[in-house]
Design goal:
There is one protein chain. By secondary structure, the chain is mostly helical. Helices cover 73% and strands 0% of the residues. It has 21 helices and no strands. The chain has helices spanning 2-9, 19-27, 30-50, 57-62, 69-80, 83-96, 111-124, 130-137, 140-177, 181-230, 233-239, 259-277, 279-286, 291-326, 340-348, 351-391, 398-423, 429-453, 459-478, 480-483, 505-522. Helix 9 crosses helix 17. It is globular, with a radius of gyration of 23 Å.
């Protein structure tokens, strides 16, 4: 009934109304604000309700290890389909067509290695955090280095989430209340921080169950509304140019978006990072009832959830390009990529419908941010605070660690706001996310991948990656033409002051880290004992 009523609302709608007028109408409507504020109230209620289940740090971080695979699947969907996904993939799909979704379909690439290698290692060995694995696999020094990089990685994702939501709400909230971008970021951060600080992993998983369904439903509804606006799929397909329908971008001739660069940045560095080193994702699987349930969740996510998710996050861009080609009065052709999603939703929806879709993006924000804040607290407690107390032989109760975890969650929220300010200096979210991921993930990706699948990999090799490898990455960022250029495979330099080799830089960073780790390991002694259950060759 809800879908039918939405479709009926648009059967006679004025499709030529400008997006600015729709935004003004939404901002002045109590219906819109009722839907948006009501969602925030529900989220805060989830945090308050599930706080009573947090009796220990195991409950707070891993939900008591009692959840079925379908719950974990929807939680993974909500985490993967972050608010930045709607905004950045809509923008790239508006510019480049169906190839804008190619980065979203890459998680299958290393899934078998995850299901049969990494997942049983972390589950059976009851690894509480990624840095803890590094200590058990190597030594305490590697754990300290991994902890630093891991915290930077997760706080960065919190910042990207905050920035995305602020840019989504800025045209509406900024116009109605006069708030600046940073003021909106702070309000969103307070709401997210409160419910994750008190709710923990149980609140995250059950909230994500609702949010995951909302995200997929919103994407499917938006695509259907867009097709109806054109008069059906055939009319929509006919209006698009041939190059817009290609599933993959051009190999190398566009410095702003090319297949080979996105492949190395997302399919290799990004997919391994998400599957193997993301503390947020690992905590999801650690909350499963068993390894079997974790494997079901991972397989269902790749085979069914991800294709639907790709449509959900990209369709606004496809529809927007079709609107420009059909009637330039509906959507300006020079629209900023980060604004495409909001503008298309405004054109297609009534005030109530617009409120629903903005709430869906809010759900995406919460689902990403809550996960990474909770994961950051897990790393801070298990890999920083607890080892320090153990070093000084200070014993504390689990209740004490639980209280500190809540405080750290609040601190992580504040640091995420600081990261959001830094990312606001990039031209668009896609570029900001790509530059961040291709720079931060290679050291952890190479170290953890070699540690799992190469028994000969040594502690000295791991340390060299975090020291020499990171040093080479810094040099590559300082001298991209000289160091990354020879590996660019023909990608031209962008005009003006744009950052060169944004995506293909991941290839240089991976080669630097893997190369340093392999060379140093070949000349140093490997660990002979204590590897049981920590590599794919000793998991049995």
């Amino acid at each position: 009934m809800f879908l039918h009523s939405l479709l009926q609302q648009h059967a006679t709608g004025d499709s030529t109304a400008m997006a600015a007028e729709a935004a003004a109408a939404a901002a002045s409507s109590p219906v819109f604000w009722g839907i948006l504020i009501g969602y925030f109230v529900v989220v805060l209620g989830f945090g308050s309700y599930f706080a009573r289940f947090n009796r220990s740090t195991t409950d707070f971080f891993f939900g008591g290890r009692r959840f079925s695979w379908w719950l974990i699947t929807m939680s993974i969907v909500a985490t993967g389909v972050g608010s930045h996904s709607f905004i950045k993939y809509s923008g790239k799909s508006f510019e480049h067509g169906f190839s804008g979704s190619m980065a979203y379909m890459n998680d299958w690439f290393f899934m078998p290695l995850f299901i049969f290698g990494w997942l049983p290692i972390v589950y059976y060995m009851k690894v509480k955090s990624i840095p803890e694995y590094f200590e058990r696999r190597f030594n305490p020094t590697v754990r300290v280095l991994a902890t630093i990089v891991q915290l930077v990685y997760m706080i960065g994702y919190v910042g990207i989430g905050f920035l995305t939501m602020a840019r989504t709400l800025e045209p509406i909230v900024g116009g109605a209340l006069g708030w600046s971008l940073m003021e909106i970021i702070w309000v969103v951060a307070v709401v997210a921080g409160v419910y994750i600080t008190f709710g923990g992993q149980t609140a995250v998983i059950f909230t994500d169950l609702l949010q995951g369904f909302i995200l997929l439903l919103a994407g499917v509804i938006l695509f259907m509304l867009g097709l109806q606006w054109f008069g059906g799929f055939d009319a929509f397909w006919a209006i698009l140019p041939a190059e817009f329908k290609l599933p993959l971008a051009n190999f190398n001739d566009d410095p702003s978006f090319n297949f080979i660069g996105v492949f190395w940045q997302d399919a290799i560095a990004g997919s391994i990072a998400f599957l193997f080193m993301s503390q947020a994702l690992i905590m999801r699987f650690m909350a499963c009832r068993s390894v079997d349930h974790g494997r079901k969740a991972a397989a269902f996510n790749v085979l069914f959830a991800l294709p639907i998710s790709a449509i959900a996050v990209c369709c606004a861009g496809w529809i927007g390009r079709g609107m420009v080609l059909t009637d330039p009065n509906v959507l300006p052709s020079d629209v900023a990529p980060d604004n495409v999603f909001v503008l298309v939703v405004q054109v297609l929806n009534s005030t109530a419908g617009f409120g629903f879709f903005i709430a869906a993006v809010t759900a995406a924000l919460m689902s990403s941010v809550d996960t990474y804040i909770n994961a950051s607290a897990a790393v801070a407690i298990n890999d920083v605070y607890r080892p320090i107390l153990n070093f000084f032989k200070i014993e504390k109760s689990d209740k004490h660690y639980l209280r500190v975890a809540m405080i750290v969650s609040a601190l992580g929220t504040v640091l995420g706001v600081c990261a959001a300010w830094g990312f606001s200096n990039f031209d668009d979210l896609y570029t900001a996310h790509a530059a961040f991921q291709s720079t931060i993930s290679p050291p952890l990706v190479s170290c953890i991948f070699l540690g799992i699948f190469w028994r000969r990999f040594t502690s000295a090799g791991a340390i060299s990656i975090f020291v020499l490898g990171v040093g080479l990455i810094v040099l590559g960022n300082a001298y991209p033409v000289q160091l990354i250029g020879p590996l660019s495979q023909g990608i031209p330099l962008p005009e003006g002051d744009a950052r060169p080799y944004t995506y293909i830089g991941a290839l240089y960073n991976l080669i630097a880290c893997f190369g340093v780790g392999v060379i140093v390991s070949l000349f140093t002694q490997p660990k002979r004992e204590g590897l049981e259950g920590l590599t794919i060759w000793t998991i049995k």
